[in-house]
Amino acid sequence: MKWTKRLEQEVQKCRYxxxxxxWIIEGITLIYKATSxxxxxxxxxxxxxxxxxxxxxxxxxxxxxxxxAIVTNSEWEPIDL
Length: 81
What we know:
Oligomer: single chain
Helix content: under 10%
Strand order of the largest sheet: 1-2-3-4
Number of helices: 1
Shape: elongated
């Protein structure tokens, strides 16, 4: 689905992300209604950032994160979608 400012604002309200695997991959689901939709839908949001293991810790900046939004009627976890 299209990543809009409005969707981004809804995602920023979410505080408890689930983290997955070697990348830092976090997922949430939310109920969202785009302005062009007639009804609300379940949306899975994935945020991810690649972590390089060079023996030193690495700071992750907000600008490093990539986001995906997936509209679904499935009850699957975001990582499984």
